[in-house]
Each structure stands twice: as structure tokens, then as C-alpha cells.
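Title: Prediction job returns without error message
Component: structure pipeline
Severity: low
Priority: P3
Assignee: unassigned

Description:
Job completed but the reporter wants confirmation the result is attached to the right record. Sequence as submitted:
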Amino acid sequence: MSAARDIYVLDTSAWLTLIEDEAGADSVEELIAQARAGEIVVLVSFMSFMDVYYITMQERDRHEAQARGFNGRFAWTTR
């Protein structure tokens, strides 16, 4: 039986904090690193990715929105 792992849910504000390198970005980055190492579980709603895309489209442009989305550096899976 595997050991129980802590579970975190990252919402839109967490992703934008990380992408914009705002206060708290280090905490979000650490959670992602722990998830990649299999130490914790990080969940993200599809809507959070869509929110990041939409907000970026409104504030910047389509190219930036696509870079931040599924083709960006933060798009990853652990399975």
C-alpha cells in the first residue's frame, strides 16, 4: 500500500502568481516541484487553464495566451 500524500488544488490566481512572478510564486513553484517528485499531489481544474488563457488574451495578446496555455512551460502531467 502506498503512503498517503498531501493533495493541493491550484486555482487561477496561483497560476497567474507563478507566471507573473508575484509574491507567493516561490511557494507555487515548490508545490509543483514536490508534485513532480511524487511527494504530493497537485490538482488543477481545466477551467483554471482556460481562465489564464482568457485573462491573458484580454490583458496581452493571443500569442502570449497560447504560450501560457497548454504549449507553455507550465503545461505538464505526472502520469
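Comment from assignee: result matches the submitted record. Confidence is low (pLDDT under 50) at residues 72-79.
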